[in-house]
Inverse folding.
């Protein structure tokens, strides 16, 4: 009887071990499957504390940077932002997804104050700051999203912090890219007077028709606007493009079709651009 009881206990122990091993293995398998799915994209994942950052930036913008925007509902803006992409396929974004957000939070730029840029972000921001002008990233929505990344997963209330679609390697219609395209289009459609664009004169094609400025902003400038282009070359580098070059002529052609007046200045060093003009 004693041997039989011992065998029974041993069998139960073995069965228990097998059960625990099966449950543990299954849990590990599910975990690996889940995270392999979240890691399937080539772009960086959503920024940690994304919603908290959006809320804090909005509060700072409306209370400190632009107190005239205090009437903006930052809680509602944060909700509209996340609702645009949460629980949705991260490769099936449309501009309509962001329309409620843009309608709620878009801020217009006064006439003669807008600055566009292409491959010159830091320089354009420095130029705008020194002269009291505004880039897209100086608007409410631009300042909220600048430097962040985001995407969700179908049917999930959470952001994907592991990876998000890359514009070139995964899909063009991802929620990050479509946001900036939608905001850039609204920005371009609403500027007025004389506006400026800072282009990199150190590269062969200072105007890139596949950039957001080339694809979205330049083709959506309203009629009778004047666009002044600055071709600025990097320190220690000679100019590689000019106002008479083929890329700038292509830009001028696009603008002519929209009855946009065009002015161009080239052969400027960074110091000349920021100081003398």
């Amino acid at each position: 009887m004693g041997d039989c009881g011992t065998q029974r206990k041993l069998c139960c122990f073995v069965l228990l071990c097998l059960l625990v091993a099966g449950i543990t293995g299954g849990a590990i398998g599910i975990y690996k499957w889940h995270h392999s799915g979240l890691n399937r994209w080539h772009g960086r994942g959503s920024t940690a504390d994304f919603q908290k950052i959006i809320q804090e930036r909005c509060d700072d913008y409306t209370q400190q940077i632009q107190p005239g925007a205090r009437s903006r509902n930052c809680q509602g803006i944060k909700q509209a932002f996340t609702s645009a992409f949460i629980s949705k396929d991260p490769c099936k974004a449309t501009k309509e997804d962001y329309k409620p957000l843009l309608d709620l939070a878009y801020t217009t730029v006064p006439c003669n104050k807008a600055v566009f840029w292409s491959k010159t972000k830091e320089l354009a921001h420095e130029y705008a700051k020194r002269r009291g002008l505004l880039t897209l990233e100086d608007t409410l929505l631009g300042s909220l999203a600048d430097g962040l990344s985001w995407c969700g997963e179908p049917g999930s209330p959470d952001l994907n912090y592991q990876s998000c679609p890359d514009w070139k390697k995964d899909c063009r219609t991802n929620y990050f890219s479509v946001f900036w395209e939608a905001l850039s289009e609204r920005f371009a459609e609403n500027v007025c007077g004389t506006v400026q664009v800072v282009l990199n004169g150190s590269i062969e094609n200072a105007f890139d028709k596949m950039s957001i400025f080339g694809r979205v902003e330049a083709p959506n400038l309203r009629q009778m606007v004047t666009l002044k282009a600055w071709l600025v070359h990097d320190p220690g580098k000679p100019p590689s493009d000019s106002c008479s070059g083929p890329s700038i002529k292509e830009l001028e052609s696009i603008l002519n079709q929209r009855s946009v007046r065009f002015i161009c200045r080239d052969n400027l060093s960074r110091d000349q651009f920021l100081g003398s003009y």
